[in-house]
From TrEMBL:
GO terms for cellular component: endomembrane system; membrane. It comes from Mizuhopecten yessoensis. Signal peptide: none annotated. This is Fringe glycosyltransferase. The chain crosses the membrane at residues 7-26.
């Protein structure tokens, strides 16, 4: 009796499984037939592929996103100089608008030092001059030409290299041919600089400046303290210029904040780090321009002032030139500027004995 009952249960289970399988098979075939009919109808109406009830919504979202991206791109084109993958207008003679002039300063010197530059030579290159500082301020410069680097306001290595790193990266997003760096106590003969750079090809590797030492600087190699590294560098106080071709080669060691890493590796400030990258790592020579001058040399010995390109000053080291009184012009740079460009507005102001705005 028990055996018969077991057989009945097994047969019942088998029949149930068989019936359930047949039902699933018929259901699947019905759905496939329905899907084929829908697909045929879709093809007849020019639609390829399955139609999702959210397809119109997704298409609309993609269109809106694409339009937003294009709008952002268009806005960026207006605000940020276009990055050029190659050097443009190679056969065109270099002009003032091909030069990127960077002034490194700090907010506490905006009135004491920067004001003098803005009143003199910067007026001849307003659109080409960018001021890299450590604080916001209201200065009479074109919009976007006063860059708060958010670096420290100290005069130590890390702060100085931080600003130089921002200068370099800012130059690289432009299509300028030349990167020229100056300190906030440096006077620049703008037409003279243009004439100088016209004699060099920006598509070649050029590092133009003047060293403050009569010998290469030496530092210990951190990976091997017994080994010394020697290289030349152009002092930032006199100013220096780098061609775009050479600036591009500096990217592995300077772009995207890597300049700070390189500076930290040799534990030297900004202008030394530039020289280390160019003269040591890239093995490119410094071309000495003896018409660049800093306050590290005897400025009163300089003759033929009209032929020089940069000047500086310190408390007891100034250019010897007649002109305005020492009360009006203690640095002698106003007198120098008005000798070079006597028709400048600031010169008329000083001649009348009026206060400088």
């Amino acid at each position: 009796m028990r055996c018969s009952l077991r057989k009945v249960i097994k047969i019942t289970i088998c029949l149930f499984i068989l019936v359930f399988s047949i039902i699933l098979y018929l259901h699947d075939n019905f759905e496939k037939s329905l899907a084929q009919g829908q697909s045929l109808g879709q093809k007849q109406h020019g639609v390829v592929g399955p139609v999702d009830q959210h397809s119109d919504i997704e298409l609309s979202r993609k269109q809106r996103n694409a339009m937003s991206v294009e709008t952002i791109k268009d806005d960026a084109k207006e605000k940020i100089p276009k990055v050029q993958p190659s050097l443009k207008s190679k056969n065109k003679r270099t002009e003032i608008d091909d030069i990127f002039i960077a002034i490194k300063t700090t907010k506490r010197y905006h009135d004491r030092r920067l004001k003098l530059l803005l009143n003199t030579w910067v007026a001849l290159a307003r659109e080409e001059t960018y001021i890299f500082t450590d604080g916001d301020d209201k200065l009479d410069v074109p919009e976007g030409h006063l860059i708060n680097t958010n670096c420290s306001n100290s005069h130590y290595r890390i702060a100085l290299s931080c600003k130089m790193a921002v200068e370099y990266d800012f130059f690289m997003i432009t299509d300028k041919r030349w990167f020229c760096h100056l300190d906030d106590d440096t006077y620049l003969n703008v037409p003279g600089l243009v004439k100088l750079l016209q004699t060099y090809n920006h598509t070649d590797d050029w590092y133009l400046g003047r060293p403050s030492l009569r010998h290469p600087i030496e530092v210990m190699k951190r990976s091997n303290p017994e080994q010394k590294i020697a290289f030349w560098f152009a002092t930032g106080g006199a100013g220096f210029c780098i061609s775009r071709s050479l600036a591009l080669k500096m990217m592995p060691h300077a772009s995207g904040g890597r300049f700070m890493t390189t500076s930290d590796m040799i534990r030297l400030p900004d202008d030394c780090t530039v020289g280390y990258i160019i003269n040591n790592l890239l093995q490119k020579e410094l071309t000495v321009i003896d018409r660049f001058h800093s306050h590290l040399e005897a400025l009163w010995w300089i003759h033929n002032l009209t032929d020089q390109l940069t000047f500086s000053y310190s408390d007891n080291n100034i250019v010897h030139i007649d002109g305005f009184s020492k009360d009006q012009d203690p640095t002698r740079l106003y007198s120098l500027h008005c000798m070079l460009f006597p028709a400048s507005d600031i010169c008329d102001t000083l001649r009348k004995g009026l206060p400088i705005a």
